[in-house]
Amino acid sequence: MHRIYFEECGNLNGPAVIFLHGGPGSGCNSTQRRFFDPAHYRIVLMDQRGCGRSTPEGETYNNTTEHLVGDIEQLRFHLNIARWHVFGGSWGSTLALTYACSHPQPIISLTLRGIFLSRPFELDWFLGQIQLFFPDQWQTLCDYLPESERSDPLQAFQQLVFSKDNDIAIPAAHIPTTIVQGRYDMVCPPQTAWQLTQAMPHAIFVMVPDAGHSAMEPGTCNALVAATEQYKHLK
User: Fold this and answer.
1) Is there a catalytic annotation at residue 213?
2) Residue 185 catalytic?
3) What is the value of pTM for the model shown?
């Protein structure tokens, strides 16, 4: 049923890196290639099930975290890649960590940004408390729901979006990891990134002091590029 779109660019003979986009529900674009040196990396971008150029568009049947992790591993086999770097932001960080828990062996490094673990209090923040800062956008979100369901938007949207809770403990703690977090990230609050860092004491943690959620803010972008540059020597 699902047809997964992917693309490759850069040095096809170099070490591979897969970019895992956020959302869930967005997709990849050409801007996301810019975190990686194309002269060095074999850059793989994949639109997750129901997202971007994958079809059917918006399909949620057989579209769970487990399915997405399986797609990542199947794509690795399809491209004949023995090991690769994994890069994910926001929901992409959730997916990257879940993949690392179940398939640590093929991962050379993890670069994570805007950490989101799908835990209940994080969902409650995103679908509740954030209205204290963005009341206009919150109203727009609630406008999609019937009047009868607006008192509990989290419960209402849970019927539309699939998610799983993830433990912070990471069994693949040996994987070289960089965690980049914007201090003023209103989508994925820094507390989660900090807690993940405590569970992964080997990780490099970069708190960008003047950044929010976007990966393209100068400080965040620079930190992400620095991480992929640092991991060039790993195989």
Assistant:
1) yes
2) yes
3) 0.81
